[in-house]
UniProtKB/TrEMBL annotation, chain A:
InterPro entries assigned to the protein according to its UniProt record, in alphabetical order: PGGT1B-like, Prenyltrans, Ptb1, Terpenoid_cyclase/PrenylTrfase
GO cellular component terms attached to this protein's record: Rab-protein geranylgeranyltransferase complex
PANTHER family the record matches: GERANYLGERANYL TRANSFERASE TYPE BETA SUBUNIT, GERANYLGERANYL TRANSFERASE TYPE-2 SUBUNIT BETA
UniProt record similarity statement: Belongs to the protein prenyltransferase subunit beta family.
Cofactor(s) named in the record: Zn(2+)
Described function: Catalyzes the transfer of a geranylgeranyl moiety from geranylgeranyl diphosphate to both cysteines of proteins with the C-terminal sequence -XXCC, -XCXC and -CCXX.
Organism name: Capsicum annuum
GO biological process: endoplasmic reticulum to Golgi vesicle-mediated transport; gametophyte development; root development
Subunit (UniProt): Heterotrimer composed of the alpha subunit RGTA, the beta subunit RGTB and REP; within this trimer, RGTA and RGTB form the catalytic component, while REP mediates peptide substrate binding.
Pfam families for the chain: Prenyltrans (PF00432)
Coiled-coil residue windows: none
Keywords on record: Metal-binding, Prenyltransferase, Repeat, Transferase, Zinc
Documented EC number(s): 2.5.1.60
Protein name in UniProt: Geranylgeranyl transferase type-2 subunit beta
Automatic annotation (TrEMBL), chain B:
Major enzyme class: transferase
GO CC list: CAAX-protein geranylgeranyltransferase complex; cytoplasm; protein farnesyltransferase complex
Keyword set, alphabetical order: Magnesium, Prenyltransferase, Repeat, Transferase
This protein's name: Protein farnesyltransferase/geranylgeranyltransferase type-1 subunit alpha
Database matches in InterPro entries: Prenyl_trans_a
Keyword Transferase: yes
Cofactors required: Mg(2+)
Enzyme Commission number(s): 2.5.1.58, 2.5.1.59
Protein's job: Essential subunit of both the farnesyltransferase and the geranylgeranyltransferase complex. Contributes to the transfer of a farnesyl or geranylgeranyl moiety from farnesyl or geranylgeranyl diphosphate to a cysteine at the fourth position from the C-terminus of several proteins having the C-terminal sequence Cys-aliphatic-aliphatic-X.
Reaction(s) catalysed by this chain's protein: geranylgeranyl diphosphate + L-cysteinyl-[protein] = S-geranylgeranyl-L-cysteinyl-[protein] + diphosphate; L-cysteinyl-[protein] + (2E,6E)-farnesyl diphosphate = S-(2E,6E)-farnesyl-L-cysteinyl-[protein] + diphosphate
Gene Ontology terms, MF aspect: CAAX-protein geranylgeranyltransferase activity; protein farnesyltransferase activity
Length: 340, 299
């Protein structure tokens, strides 16, 4: 059995974060703030956040803020909820939330709630339960949840529940592990988990584990070969164009979505954890660091985050525990929420 | 990109700007800022939006999993209204012919049906997709969406009988397929008693459990039904007898034996089945287990 190559992964992430001119950076340019969140959270879980030039990162993050209060994916890009959450999370990692004009940011987020309780991602109005999660989490981290109608927000999420116990992006949409993560986490944060059919959803989630030990995102024909990250519901909207450029199929990302959901509903013991740990470790690039979607594929920061975060949820030794709902290290959540 | 930056910063809403956004999008269709600016320019110039649809068609060919394209398309369809229905349904069909589970395309299609209409052929379309691939969970989901939400079909109650018939056939064809089993449960949402009494369900259970196929989903449903007062036939009991591992005492209650078979047949989830065993009563009826079927939830 291999082990987690902490030093190599840290080196890999720092190298990628510094790169600005190669192809991957150009395609990633508009979602760099997402990338920063993935990379920096991974470093923090592995106890390597100190290797980063903190002031440089914070100054760059603040330059991504738009006059509306929201953040764009990079300097000069339009604001969107996705990057606003990433900015808040990155600042939380560095214990720098106080540099924000909290009311301005929270007013931007609250302004995106619709009459039915749902949230739009930006002024153009796309609605998705991902945005419900992002808004609820962002405002919780800013201690401003009272700016939105939480009751209505919860009601909308529940309207997206399916007969299989899972959740989709809008009412009637297919259940998918990424979407389930967003909905269950939003319900967990707002103390509304009693709306989840835990046994039914737990069964659906544990059915996602396949023979290799890895997980898929929804029922399908050949679980061992065609799981796809194509529906990356992630915290990222436009990562698609990046992922699609070199990844056809994937599993490691589901370790995070399925596992965190199972933990939140207290059913994680229903899967074979040992096999999943092995599967994630097998996806490491043992030479140059980084984790890929599946064994022997090309690595990227996105899957390195989901792999390491997944191992953290599986209580892998030597790394920090991550909170399954807040998607931040537990000590960071405690510091922000409880002032410890 | 530098030219784009310049016109974006100058907020220049001109044909030249439109051209530059097109070039920037071709370079990187994931750049949401460019798309957003393009909509501003399109609105300002009052461009023929049918032309814009053609532009999106060209870009979408290679980028069917890009959120921006779908979002832009919805914006266009919203502007064009009922005129857009046929075109949008055809467009998503084209995407499904390459990737039948594209989440973005399904989301778009559901939005078109609900916002603009076009339900007439949707059930037939689901049928066709399932003929192509009976494992397509997205198509099963869409089928449920149509049966429960189409204004033309009379709702779940009116559709149940014919849908059960269809589902049971699909189960017989591939009993290891998780989707139709879940669909069957969905058809009896909030009415478990009718599922317990449905002779088609009992009959498909017997067929699957006496075949050489995977028994996991059949056993799982049988366990649930037993918890709700289902009275198994002698043949069904005999089928369970055959499947019961030798290590298991034949005197053990039926529900306990079924759980034991599942623990052996599906070792990955042994702990789940073990939990089912521990919460299943010895006698049928009154399941202490959370009312799994009855709670199949509101949507």
């Amino acid at each position: 059995m291999g082990e987690l190559l902490v030093e190599k992964h840290a080196k890999y992430i720092i190298t990628v974060e510094k790169r600005k001119d190669d192809f991957e950076s150009v395609v990633m340019e508009h979602l760099r703030l997402n990338g920063a969140y993935w990379g920096l959270t991974t470093l923090d879980i592995m106890g390597k956040l100190g290797a980063v030039e903190q002031d440089e990162v914070i100054s760059w993050v603040m330059q991504c803020q738009h006059e509306s209060g929201g953040f764009g994916g990079n300097i000069g890009h339009d604001p969107h909820l996705l990057y606003t959450l990433s900015a808040i999370q990155v600042l939380a990692l560095f214990d720098k939330l106080h540099v924000l004009d909290i009311d301005k940011v929270s007013n931007y987020i609250a302004g995106l709630q619709n009459e039915d309780g749902s949230f739009s991602g930006d002024i153009w109005g796309e609605v998705d339960t991902r945005f419900s999660y992002i808004s609820i989490l962002s405002l919780t981290l800013l201690h401003r949840l009272d700016k939105i109608d939480v009751g209505k927000a919860v009601k909308y999420i529940i309207s997206c529940k399916n007969v299989d116990g899972g959740f989709g992006c809008t009412p009637g949409a297919e259940s998918h592990a990424g979407q389930i993560f967003c909905c269950v986490a939003a319900l967990a944060i707002t103390g509304s988990l009693h709306h989840v059919d835990k046994d039914l959803l737990g069964w659906w989630l544990c059915e996602r584990q396949v023979k290799s030990g890895g997980l898929n995102g929804r029922p399908e024909k050949l679980p061992d070969v065609c799981c796809s990250c194509d529906i990356v519901i992630s915290i990222s909207k436009s990562v698609m164009s990046f992922i699609d450029s070199h990844v056809v199929a994937s599993q490691v990302c589901y370790s995070w979505w399925v596992l965190s959901s199972l933990i939140m509903i207290d059913r994680v013991h229903w899967i074979d954890k040992g096999k999943l740990v092995q599967f994630i470790l097998d996806c490491q690039d043992k030479e140059n660091g980084g984790i890929s979607d599946r064994p022997d594929d090309a690595v990227d920061v996105f899957h390195t985050y989901f792999g390491v975060a997944g191992l953290s949820l599986l209580e892998y030794p030597g790394i920090k525990p991550i909170d399954p709902a807040y998607a931040l290290p537990v000590d960071v959540v405690n510091r922000v929420m409880l002032g410890r | 990109m530098d030219y784009f930056r310049a016109i974006y910063l100058a907020n220049e809403r001109s044909p030249r700007s439109l051209q530059l956004t097109a070039e920037a999008i071709q370079l990187n269709p994931g750049n949401y800022t460019v798309w957003q600016f393009r909509r501003v320019v399109l609105e300002a110039l009052a461009v023929d939006l049918h032309e814009e649809l053609k532009f999106v068609d060209r870009i979408a060919g290679d980028n069917s999993k890009n959120y921006q394209i779908w979002h832009h398309r919805r914006w266009l369809a919203e502007k064009l209204g009922a005129d857009a229905v046929t075109n949008e349904l055809e467009f998503t069909k084209k995407i499904f012919s390459q990737d039948a589970k594209n989440y973005h395309a399904w989301s778009h299609r559901q939005w078109v049906l609900q916002a603009l209409g076009g339900w007439e052929d949707e059930l037939a379309y689901c049928q066709q997709l399932l003929e192509d691939d009976i494992y397509n969970n997205s198509a099963w989901n869409q089928r449920y969406f149509v049966v429960t939400r189409s204004p033309l079909l009379g709702g779940l109650a009116a559709m149940r009988e014919s849908e059960v018939k269809y589902t049971v056939q699909a189960i017989r064809a591939s009993p290891e397929n998780e989707s139709p089993w879940r669909y069957l449960r969905g058809l009896y949402k909030n009415d478990t008693q009718s599922l317990v009494e449905d002779s088609q369900a009992a009959s498909v259970l017997l067929d699957v459990l006496t075949s050489k196929n995977s028994h996991v989903h059949a056993l799982s449903l049988l366990l649930d039904l037993l918890c709700h007062g289902f009275e198994p036939s002698q043949e069904l009991r005999s089928a369970i007898d055959v499947l019961t591992p030798e290590s298991c005492s034949p005197d053990l209650a039926l529900t306990k034996r079924i759980s034991s078979i599942l623990e052996h047949a599906d070792p990955t989830r042994v702990k789940y089945w073990n939990w089912r065993k521990s919460t299943t009563p010895v006698q049928s009826a009154q399941c202490q287990n959370t009312d799994r079927l009855a709670n199949l939830s509101m949507q």
